[in-house]
Amino acid sequence: MSGHEVPSLLLDDEQKMLSRTARELIRERAPAARLRAFRDTGDPVGFSGELWREMADLGWIGLQIPEAYGGMGLGFFDLCVVLEQSGRELMPEPFVSTLLLGTQALLLGGSEAQRKSLLPGVASGEIVLSIGYDEPSAPPGMPRPAVAVERSGDRFELSGERAQVLDAHVADRIMVLAATSEGGSTLFLVDPARAEVSVTRQHRMDGLNAAIVRLERLRVGADDIVGVLDGGASLLESVLDRASVGLAAQMLGASEQAFADTLAYLKEREQFDVPIGSFQALQHRAVSVFTEIALTRSAVLAAARAIDEKPAEVPRLASLAKSIASETFLLSAKEAIQMHGGIGVTDEHDIGFYFKRAHAAYMTFGTPSQHRQRWAELHDY
Amino acid sequence: MSGLEAFRKEARAWIRENAPRPLWGTSGSGPFEGYFGGRKCEERDLDLLLWRDRGIEKGWTAPSWSKEYGGAGLSRAQEDVIHSEMKAIGVPRPVAGQGLAMFGPVLLEYGTHAQKLEHLPKIARGEVRWCQGYSEPNAGSDLANLQLKAERDGDWYVLNGQKIWTSHAHLSDWIYCLVRTDPSARKKQLGISVVLADLETPGITVRRIDLISGYSPFCETFFDDVRVPVGNLVGKENEGWTIAKAILGHERSSIGRSIARQPGSAQREVVARARKHLGITKGAIADPLLRDEIAALGMREEAFHLTLARIQQSAESGTPGPEGSVTKIVGSELKQQRYELGMKIAGMQGLGWEGPGFDEDDLQYTREWLRSRATTIEGGSSEIQKNIVSKHVLGLPEGKK
Ligand SMILES: Cc1cc2nc3c(=O)[nH]c(=O)nc-3n(C[C@H](O)[C@H](O)[C@H](O)COP(=O)(O)OP(=O)(O)OC[C@H]3O[C@@H](n4cnc5c(N)ncnc54)[C@H](O)[C@@H]3O)c2cc1C
Questions:
Q1: Is A150 helix (H, G, I), strand (E, B) or coil?
Q2: Is there an atom of ligand 1 within 6 Å of B221 CB?
Q3: Checking DSSP bridges between strand B280-281 and strand B284-285, what pairing results, if any?
Q4: Which of A173, A240, A251, B339 has the greatest CB tally within 10 Å of its CB?
Q5: Using CB atoms, which residue from A280, A302, A369 is nearest to B306?
Q6: Partners of residue A2 in chain B, C-beta under 8 Å
Q7: How far, in Å, from the CA of B383 to the mean position of ligand 1?
Q8: How large is the ipTM?
Q9: pTM for the full model?
Q10: Could you tell me the fold of the domain covering A131-230?
Q11: What sign does the dihedral A53-A57-A61-A66 (CA atoms) show?
Q12: Which option is the CATH number for A233-378: 1.20.140.10, 3.40.470.10, 1.10.10.10, 3.90.226.10?
C-alpha cells in the first residue's frame, strides 16, 4: 500500500453528524456508571433492551444491514462510527454478539432464508444473536468446551457445551461451532427455546453478559447450517476479522474516554499547590497515551474502510487494528488509574470499569501476540 | 475526474518517462534524499545528475515556488502529488536538502523580494547548499539562550561567537544563522534575529566533529569579526524567533516523514536480515521471539504510515488535526527500533567496524544503527516535543520554573 493509495481515513459530513449525535445520546443515556447499577441490582438482562430498540429506531443498529433486510444499507465504516461512541461509555448492549458476530456470519455465509428471517429483526432491535466458538486466546493446554456431532444423512445431533457465549442468556438465536468431521467444523443455527438447549448465565468482571450454552442431543437439519458443511472455520475466521475491527473501534472510543477523563483530572487535581498536570513526569506519559491513540485511530479506520472497499487487505489490517487497539486501551486504562491516584482503584470511580474492559477486550478475538504471529504469516515470514 | 486527478496522471507520466531507470526503487523520495548540490558537491552519479537537470528544467525541484524563483508555479496540492508519484516508484528528489525543505519555504514567507530573487532560484537549481546555524554550546534545547553576537556597524553586522552541531557546514555554501542583536532585551526570545552568511566570508572557520558512527556530518562553526551586509537580515531585527520556530516546524515534519520511506520498507529490510542471519524453518523465521518483534515493528510501521496519510488527508480537507505533532516523536523512535532489531538479528556479525570478516552491508548497517541514536535528539529532542504537545495540544499547565 503506497502513500496515495490509502483510502480516505476521514469521516464525511454525515458520518461526523452521526458521530456527534451518537456521542450525545450515549453520554446522556448510557454513562459507564450503568455497569455498576446493572451489577449491584442483579439485573437479569444486564443491559437496556429499551435503549437498544431506541437506537434501532434511529437506524443505528441496522446501519450496515442491506435495505432489502430492513437496514440502512451503509458500510461497516459507518457502523464503526457508532461502535466507537458505544465504546466510550463501555455500553453492555449486544453490539458485539448481535452486530459483530451474528449479523456478520449471516451476511458472509447465511442463506437467503436465514437472512430474511433474522436480519429485519436485528435491524429493528427485536432480535439478539450470538455465536459460541473457540476463542483463540483460550490456553492450549485446557480442555476446550466443545460440541460433538452425530450425523445421519442430512440430520445432525449436537451435544456438548460452549462457555462465555456473549448475550446467550437473552439471545433469540445462537450459532454454535461444532466438529462435523476430522478437522472440519460447521456453524449451526440453534434456537435456545428448544428443550434440548440449556443456558446458564455467567458473570464477568467487565460487565459484558455471557452464558454457558449446553446442548443435549439437539437435532438440527441442513437448513440450520450457516455457510457450508465443514466450512465453519474459514467462515468464522472472516467473521472474527470483522468482529476484531468492530471491537477495536469500541476500544478506540474507550481509550479516548479514559484519556479525556484523565486529562481533565490532571488539570483539576492540585497537589503541592499546583495542578498535577504541571508535573513533567505525568505530562510526558500523557503525551505517550495521546500518540498511541492517534496511531490506533488510523489503524482502526483503515481496517474498517478495507472491509467495505478492499477485502483482500482485511486479514492484515484486522490483525493490526485488534493488536494495536488492545495495547492502547490497556495502556490508557492503566495510566488513567495511576494518574487518578487512590480514587482510581475504588469501585466508586468509573475508571476501574475501563481497566476491566480493557483486559477483557485484550483477550477477546485473539491477543496481540496471536495477531502478530498471524501478521508474520500473512507477510510470509 | 477532478483537476487534481488529471494532474496526477500527467505527473505520473512525466516522472516515469524522465526519471532514469537505474534510480527507480533506490529511494524513499524524502526531502533529504537526492542531489544535495552546492559549489562543493562532487556527485558522480550520472543518472542522478540527469534527473536533476530534467527536474530543474521542468521547475519540479520546487514545484510550488513561482517560476521567477525557479519553481513551476503549481499549488501545494500539486506539489504533494508530484512527491507522492516520485515515492510511488522510489526515485530520489531531483534536488534535496535544507534549502528546499526548510529554509526556502520560510524565506518565501518572510524574505524581501530581492532576497528571494537572489537565493531561491539557486536553491531550486541545486547550485547553493544551505546549513542551519542555530545550536550553540549553551543553547541546545533552550535555543533562545543563544549568544552569538551581531553588532551593527554602518551597513554591516559584525558577528562574533560560535555555532555547534551545524550539520554539513563543511559541504555547504551559505548558513542561516540565529544571532543576538539585542543583548538587553527584556526576554531572551526578543533580541534574536535571522541573518544569512556566505560561508566563504573571512572570519568563518568550520571544524568537523566525529560521531559515534564514524561519520562526520557535523561541524563547529566559529565566527570571528565576520562582516555581513545588513541586507542579509531576514524579517525585522529582533523579531527572528518567530522565523526560527517556523523553520523548526518544517524541520520536524520533514524528519518525521523522511523516516517513513516506503510503506513496509522497515519490515522488509529487517525480514531480509533475519533470513540472512537467522534462517528459515518451515517458512517462518527461525527465532520465534525475534519474529514476534519483527511483526511488532511491522505493525507499528504500518500504523505510522496510515497516520501520516490521515494527517495529509485532513490537511487537504482543510482541518489539520493535532496529530501532526506525533510524527516526530513516533517516527524517530520507530527508526531506532528498526535498527536495534536489525542489530539483534545480526548477532556477532553486527560487531564489525571495518576490514575482513564482515560484509559491506553489515558494516554499513552498524553505522546506521549508531547514527539512529541522533534522531530523538536532532530537531528538538523527544522530551522537548513532548513538552510542546503537552502544552499546545493537550493544554496542560506549564510547570513551576
Ligand atoms: C544529527 C543532528 C543534527 C543536528 N543538526 C543541527 C544543525 O544543522 N544545526 C543546528 O543548529 N543544530 C543541529 N543539531 C543540534 C540539535 O538541535 C541539539 O542537539 C538539540 O536541540 C539538543 O540540544 P543539546 O544537544 O544541547 O542537548 P541538551 O539541550 O543539553 O539536552 C540534554 C538532555 O536534556 C533534555 N532536556 C533539555 N531540556 C529539557 C526540558 N525542558 N525538559 C525535559 N528534558 C529536557 C534533552 O531532551 C536531552 O535529553 C543537530 C543535532 C543532531 C543530533
A1: strand
A2: no
A3: antiparallel
A4: A251
A5: A302
A6: 84, 87-88, 262-263
A7: 10
A8: 0.94
A9: 0.92
A10: Butyryl-CoA Dehydrogenase, subunit A; domain 2 (2.40.110)
A11: positive
A12: 1.20.140.10
